[in-house]
Design brief:
The protein is mainly α and 596 residues long. The protein is built from 17 helices and 6 strands. A two-stranded parallel ribbon has the order 1-4. Helix 3 runs antiparallel to helix 16 (493-521) and helix 4 (88-124) packs across helix 16. The longest helix has 37 residues, at 88-124.
Length: 596
């Protein structure tokens, strides 16, 4: 990569390969860092307000307006949520392979806005929703939405899925790209970036789970969905205003193809021995990498069977011979798969357990004083509040204190942080089970077993599980975002970030399976069933206990995977920018859970 004629000392240019939109090297003093991130954070704040303005109270709209039952509405939300979090895999592929993060993001944002406009239209026009259910009419006899009405509503929701597929994996990745890993000061900023990124997201979420939910429940869905749509349009404008300050990383071809080439080449040479001297493996010169604005990765010893892809046999086809760097990139992405799998189960908590929490809240006393009723959907705001409180405490108190003993820049390793969060999620399910048993006991004692009966318990009895969820999210969700970005190779950062969201998506579909299977099995042979439209005669306590047991087994699997996980401990080389070639103390091998 050549330095442009623009004035400025060589050392003032970023050394991580970032460029401007025209592909020219950028000056560190004029681009990136928190100045650029302020526009990205501004976008994310308003976009999260828009997204959660829709998703938080979606169960209420599906139940009260489209007249869907507990299982149907919960499954629709889980399937939609799963799609929202899986689609980023496609968006990351497009960004890393062809369009780059910026252009992919802009196009996807326009699609996202179209979906929001159509959704607002669908809740505004009387012809696009079924008639209201008359008072006293049994829920199962309420008029159902027509195929056209459901079609327009869910078409809008899935257009939003397409839009978020291009925005989710690229916005946080772009944010992290604004800090140069080759500059010690900027690298230290990146350690805190994901904490404060998540903090800013929650400001928007808090607004949507309080103000917007209140508008939807008490004023109307047209304004309740219209405001998030306007907010999304404003967020796109904020993002575009920051364009002159962004640092960009060029797309470097299909990551899927490069990884597949390594596996194919290794399999085709499965009976060839890897040379003891790894310098005999195929690799390009540092100058060739520098000309293509890429980093060269030293050889590591884990997943050594993939090294066969770099053995020279006289055939130079990319499906027969790969470079050491290409092989190492494949190793780094492959080792993320087990972590992604063991974080799927916790994602079911956010997908449908919270939906059931809201369902419980709809049966409780929602009065706050004499003149105000709290919406069940607004209970999520307590999760947000506790997360907002805990993030600065974690970053400013917990990390410096623990760092004094562990000597780890992050205080504890990323996987240790995730593990603590998984334990908290298990505790949440146990608390939810106990509280639900209490709610059902009061319902039986007062003979309040009707679907619309209000149990004489304050809705704030659900507060502990919502509040503890906020602390758990600080450990799991922020750490997941940081982990998959940090451990993915430089040329596949968007794909790495998408792996974090993919566990959410798979968790959504898994929650649909759990919910449907449990509801069906427990109603066989004349059983009353654990999950019914009438939660006052359901047994959600049994269901929470069941998910808790599954979560415990998953945590054991996580401990095994984490114990054998090997963190990246490689310093990339960029000779054209006068950086030194260095590697880990053991000549390039990565270290187990120690440094990062």
């Amino acid at each position: 990569m050549e330095i442009s004629e623009e004035k400025g000392p060589l050392e003032d240019y970023t050394q991580d390969g970032t460029v401007d939109l025209q592909g020219r090297p950028v000056l560190r003093s004029k681009t990136g860092r928190w100045k650029a991130c302020s526009f990205l954070v501004g976008y994310e704040l308003f976009e999260r307000m828009a997204y959660y303005g829709i998703s938080t109270n979606l169960v209420v709209y599906l139940t009260n307006k489209l007249h869907q039952g507990t299982v149907e509405s919960s499954n629709n939300i889980s399937n939609w949520g799963g799609s929202v979090w899986l689609m980023p895999l496609a968006g990351a592929y497009i960004a890393d392979s062809y369009l780059g993060r910026y252009l992919t993001f802009v196009i996807a944002s326009c699609i996202y806005l179209i979906g929001m406009c159509l959704l607002t239209l669908s809740v505004s026009l009387p012809s696009l929703r079924p008639p209201e259910c008359d008072e006293g009419v049994a829920f199962q006899n309420c008029p159902k939405a027509s195929p056209l009405q459901k079609g327009v509503f869910f078409l809008a929701l899935y257009i939003i899925v397409l839009g978020t597929g291009g925005t989710k994996p690229n916005i946080s990745t772009m944010g992290a790209d604004q800090f140069d890993d080759f500059d010690p000061k900027e690298k230290s900023y990146k350690f805190s970036f994901f904490n404060w990124w998540y903090f800013s997201i929650l400001i928007g979420v808090l607004f949507s789970t309080t103000f917007l939910v209140y508008i939807q429940d008490n004023i109307g869905w047209t304004l309740g969905y219209g405001l998030p749509t306007i907010g999304l349009a404003f967020s796109i404008l904020v993002f575009l205003l920051g364009t002159p300050y962004y640092r960009h990383k060029l797309p470097q071809g299909s990551p899927m193809t490069r990884m597949l080439q390594v596996f194919v080449a290794a399999l085709r040479k499965w009976n060839v021995r890897v040379p003891k001297d790894t310098n005999e493996l195929h690799e390009l010169s540092m100058e060739e990498y520098a000309c293509n604005a890429r980093n060269r990765i030293p050889h590591t010893s884990f997943f050594s069977f993939l090294d066969k892809a770099a053995i020279k046999t006289g055939q130079n086809s990319p499906w027969m011979l790969c470079t050491v760097t290409q092989t190492e990139e494949t190793k780094q992405m492959t080792k993320l798969i087990p972590i992604s799998i063991v974080t799927i189960i916790p994602s079911t908590l956010g997908m449908h357990i919270f939906t059931l929490f809201v369902k419980q809240g709809m049966t409780l006393d929602k009065r706050v004083g004499d003149h105000f009723n709290i919406s069940p959907g607004s209970l999520v705001s307590f999760t947000i509040l506790f997360t907002l409180i805990w993030i600065p405490m974690y970053d400013r108190i917990f990390v410096p204190f623990i760092r004094h003993y562990t000597k780890n820049p992050r205080g504890i390793t990323i996987l240790q942080r995730i593990g603590i969060g998984l334990v908290l999620y298990i505790i949440i399910l146990v608390i939810a089970c106990l509280i639900e048993r209490k709610r059902l006991k009061v319902a039986r004692e007062n003979n309040l077993l009707g679907m619309h009966d209000t149990i004489p318990l304050s809705i704030f009895i659900l507060l502990p599980q919502f509040a503890l969820s906020g602390i758990g999210d600080n450990f799991v969700e922020i750490a997941k975002m940081e982990f998959f970005y940090d451990q993915a190779p430089e040329s596949m950062k968007s794909l790495g970030t998408a792996c974090a969201t993919a566990s959410y998506g798979l968790g959504g579909f898994l929650s649909t399976f759990f919910l449907s299977a449990v509801a069906d099995i427990t109603q066989r042979h004349g059983g009353r069933g654990w999950i019914l439209d009438n939660v006052n005669v359901s047994h959600l306590d049994y269901y929470y206990a069941f998910i808790a047991v599954i979560s415990i087994l998953n945590f054991i699997c996580f401990l095994v995977v984490a114990k054998y996980f090997v963190y990246n401990d490689v310093k990339y080389t960029r000779p054209a920018l006068e950086t030194n070639t260095t590697s880990s103390p053991d000549s390039g091998t990565s270290q187990p859970d120690a440094k990062y």
